């Protein structure tokens, strides 16, 4: 899920976070006065609304739940502290809009979760859906350790030195955990069926695309509908690019601003093939060098910014992992010996279940020698082996193959394209489930926004 998992960062992206955090806190301290005095007015100006009071004016009312100018200013400071960006006159409106959007979404999420709790209680099945203080503390400790290499108290102290109320992050975490639990409980688990056919199709598509160029990408996506239109999304993306060119960490910016499902992992989209990229992104990525950041890329419903971390040409070699069971025969062995060996291997073949247990079963047959042939490029195999392997799926065993050395059964244990990391079936199933939950989460939040009464006094 996009925002639900935003703070679950990978450890590989957190090196050096302590120094970055210190720099970000310093930056926040320097602009704290500006934000406190000008933040609410800038927001009002950007939205064409009357300016609210500086600290406790009402900026928005979400189903009778107030969001104050103080709430917005606090969230802006928090966004800056955790993304590493610097405040400019150009990006203030974007920061204020991002802060307000987050607060509105969190109010809607908690309202829906509390309604679900009440409904279950009335039906005689009370359940704890809203995150408890203990759960918030645990997640807060994880964030401090994994993202910033601090303990909880050090992290809160660092935020406090920038004038950030601990309630700001605690409220955000409570909404994230609660929404995650509600979405997962209602739509996940046994209710979400990922068929083996879906998994196989996803793996087959990945294998089929293996011959295409591969790109290791960092991805940021700004949804135009959430940014207030394409013009605002383009302007916001330009500001983010400028900030990252000046040193703001890509991963932290992606976690805070991206509307893509990869925001949870700092924008890490992994290795993608050319056909997996949006057409608009594809043409840009082809021209980038590893380590290079793109300019904003307009698409049909939003704007992309990509960081090309690495790339390599498409795979042209197919690698197979093989096992064999063989009977030694000379090239001029009598036909009767060949026939007897063939009958023996045919009988063994009916007992084999792919590679599993091949050596043990073959070892019980007199005259049969079995072994692991390891991984090899199909084009490097003997012609007799190559022809057989090309027609075998993973887990299948060939008919007896005659060579000058004897008679052989080949079992294909694995098949992959050279240079391509094909995920396991469990990994693919997990990703498909996460993608579906992410889409459900988006739809649910969109429906809540559409049905909510949101006023800007």
Kindly, what is the distance between the CA atoms of the first and last residues, rounded to a whole number of angstroms?
Answer: 32 Å
Summed over residues and divided by their number, the pLDDT gives a mean of 82
Low-pLDDT stretches are 1-55
CATH architecture of the largest domain: Orthogonal Bundle
CATH fold type of the largest domain: Triger factor/SurA peptide-binding fold
Strand-residue proportion: 15-25%
Structural class: alpha+beta
Report on the architecture of this protein.
- This protein has 457 residues and is an alpha+beta fold.
- It has 3 domains: 1-205, Triger factor/SurA peptide-binding fold (Orthogonal Bundle), CATH 1.10.4030; 213-313, Chitinase A, domain 3 (Roll), CATH 3.10.50; 318-417, Chitinase A, domain 3 (Roll).
- Helix content is 51%, strand content 17%.
- It is built from 15 helices and 12 strands.
- It has helices at residues 17-47, 69-83, 92-122, 133-148, 152-161, 166-187, 196-208, 224-227, 230-245, 250-257, 279-285, 335-351, 358-363, 383-390, 425-451; strands spanning 58-62, 65-68, 214-223, 268-273, 292-293, 297-298, 302-312, 318-328, 369-377, 401-403, 406-417, 454-455.
- Strands 3, 4, 5, 6 and 7 form a 5-stranded antiparallel β-sheet that branches. Strands 9-8-11-10 form a 4-stranded antiparallel β-sheet, with helices on both faces. It has a 3-stranded antiparallel β-sheet with strand order 2-1-12.
- Strand 10 (401-403) and strand 11 (406-417) form a beta hairpin.
- Helix 1 packs antiparallel against helix 2 and helix 1 (17-47) packs across helix 3.
- The radius of gyration is 29 Å and the shape is elongated.
């Amino acid at each position: 899920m996009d925002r639900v998992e935003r703070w679950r960062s990978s450890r590989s992206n957190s090196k050096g976070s302590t120094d970055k955090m210190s720099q970000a806190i310093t930056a926040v301290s320097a602009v704290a006065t500006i934000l406190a005095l000008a933040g609410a007015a800038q927001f009002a100006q950007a939205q064409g609304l009357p300016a609210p009071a500086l600290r406790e004016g009402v900026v928005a009312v979400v189903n009778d739940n107030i969001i104050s100018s103080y709430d917005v200013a606090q969230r802006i400071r928090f966004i800056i502290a955790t993304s590493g960006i610097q405040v400019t006159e150009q990006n203030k409106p974007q920061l204020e809009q991002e802060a307000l959007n987050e607060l509105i979404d969190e109010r809607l999420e908690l309202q829906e979760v509390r309604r679900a709790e009440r409904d279950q209680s009335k039906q005689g099945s009370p359940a704890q859906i809203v995150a408890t203080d203990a759960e918030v503390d645990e997640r807060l400790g994880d964030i401090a350790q994994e993202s910033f290499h601090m303990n909880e108290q050090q992290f809160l102290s660092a935020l406090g030195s920038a004038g950030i109320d601990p309630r700001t992050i605690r409220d955000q975490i409570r909404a994230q955990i609660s929404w995650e639990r509600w979405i997962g409980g209602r739509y996940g688990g046994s209710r979400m069926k990922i068929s083996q056919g879906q998994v196989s199709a996803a793996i087959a598509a990945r294998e089929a695309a293996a011959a295409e160029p591969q790109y290791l990408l960092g991805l940021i996506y700004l949804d135009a509908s959430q940014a207030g239109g394409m013009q605002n999304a383009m302007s916001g993306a330009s500001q983010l690019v400028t900030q990252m060119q000046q040193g703001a960490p890509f991963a932290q910016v992606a976690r805070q601003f991206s509307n893509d499902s990869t925001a949870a992992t700092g924008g890490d989209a992994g290795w993608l093939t050319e056909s997996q990229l949006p057409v608009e992104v594809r043409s840009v990525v082809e021209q980038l060098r590893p380590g290079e950041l793109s300019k904003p890329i307009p698409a049909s419903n939003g704007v992309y910014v990509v960081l090309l971390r690495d790339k390599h040409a498409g795979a042209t070699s197919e690698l197979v992992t093989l096992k064999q069971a063989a009977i030694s025969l000379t090239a001029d062995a009598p036909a009767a010996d060949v026939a007897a060996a063939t009958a023996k291997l045919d009988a063994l073949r009916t007992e084999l279940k792919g590679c599993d247990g091949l050596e043990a079963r073959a070892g019980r047959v007199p005259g049969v020698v079995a072994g692991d042939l390891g991984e090899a490029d199909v084009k490097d195999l003997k012609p007799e082996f190559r022809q057989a392997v090309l027609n075998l799926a993973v887990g299948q065993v060939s008919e007896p193959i005659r060579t000058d050395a004897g008679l052989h059964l080949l079992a294909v244990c694995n098949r992959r394209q050279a240079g391509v990391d094909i995920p396991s079936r469990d990994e693919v199933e997990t990703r498909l489930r996460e993608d579906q939950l992410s889409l459900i989460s988006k739809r649910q939040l969109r429906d809540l926004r559409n049905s909510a009464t949101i006023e800007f006094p």
